[in-house]
């Protein structure tokens, strides 16, 4: 037998062939997720994991051995492809927790497809070839004859033991790493996925009696103020909170080639209270997480969307607080209430009424429901009825038209993009936000015309980021650099605006303090003169507090937080973490302390413990 024949026979052996296939697929995943041009870690991490499975097949699969190899290959392919696509959408490594989200995928299929680079599909090449081979009887028969030959048992056992040892060597030293992306890279993607399944340790919960507002305030550096500024300045007024889809702060007062992108928002910002250093605090549930955080002043859960994990809880909330103070409450959203399990969340939060797709009747639909124009027109009419009742109200209005992937219908274009922005992700985002601002302006006009505006406090914020760094092409990054005058960074990505407007109360003022979505509830309560003394909350009134600490989850590695003028992102822990100036400078060497790092983790643990042990409203 010649060397060529020996080589030909070797690669036909499933153990060798599928090892090569897994290696190539792992290299593709590492290149996309970690940016590795030569991902050697795939060879020393993912291949030993695959060999463990392949050796088990060689040892125990007496029949249908090829079928088992194909099954493992398909499973590995599915995992690696999911890792690639999930990273491009969320910037995190997908785990089994995301299975709860599977039923939402069809609703965001346009967003998923928009992130799919053609070369990602190379990961399925071998499956197509294998499918073809099975229908070529002559080739298939010859291959099956080769497959029938088992690997020597001693060799299989030896490779199995060595591979298991290598897997443990990759996993064990990296178990304590806070940064999930670094952890996945150091362990190997497949090892990391297995580790998350096998290490489902339950968090030790803190006794609710030990979770006090004083303890929370001490961790955050909050001081009790005898006469807080703006307390009761809008007492008795309605509260309207408008949650804008994917609205980031850089859009405020932005002009591109002389064109204002958000003229209506700009006018509001420049004549009222504006908080430029305000940040998102959402997770897997995105928009629905923002609804949860704003209305409860609790942090999102460590895994999964708040609507899935906490929806069954009897939640202390802003709707309930306002009802206790004589307000009627309602929330408006053009999507179906079942999406992201909102119906359950709304019961937990205590909304008296919700208006969903049924109310908006599918009029002028795109993306998830009726357009923002329909949302605002019909909502304005309902708010007028509520206002005319003589009883103040609290309502939340959820905008959705500027949703990822931002490809709004041509009939909704309200601006002409410069040539260099056409056909880009950034260009689509800017045009969709321009339309959302147009519709918002109509809402303002209707509220002013029907008398609701003068009787209300209006709070507007972005629900979450729209332009993830990890989704941008080279051309998109160049456009963002043109807009910022520097490289677009993590602090820019999670920075969202907060504007507060109320006739006779607000004036042109920029508040330089730090805030996050968790602070909306206590800030609104202060303005309306509503006490929160008897309600546990993790946010603070950002009119009156100088210090703030904003733990981040999901879009940034666990252990990340914003404090002072700095964003901190951990490595394995604090010592090898990276600090980023909120002005965009990276690699800052001073700013946050290890004490703040530990305090941020404690705050998350307190919130997780408190909410997890709240009573279930379903059992009442």
TrEMBL record:
Keywords associated with the record: Cell membrane, Manganese, Membrane, Metal-binding, Transmembrane, Transmembrane helix
Sulfatase N-terminal domain: residues covered = 237-530
Q: Which Pfam families match?
A: Sulfatase
Instruction: Please indicate if the UniProt record lists Manganese as a keyword.
Output: yes
Describe its membrane topology: Multi-pass membrane protein
Family, according to the entry, reads as follows: Belongs to the LTA synthase family.
Name it. Answer: Sulfatase
Q: What does the record give as the organism's lineage?
A: Bacteria, Bacillati, Bacillota, Bacilli, Bacillales
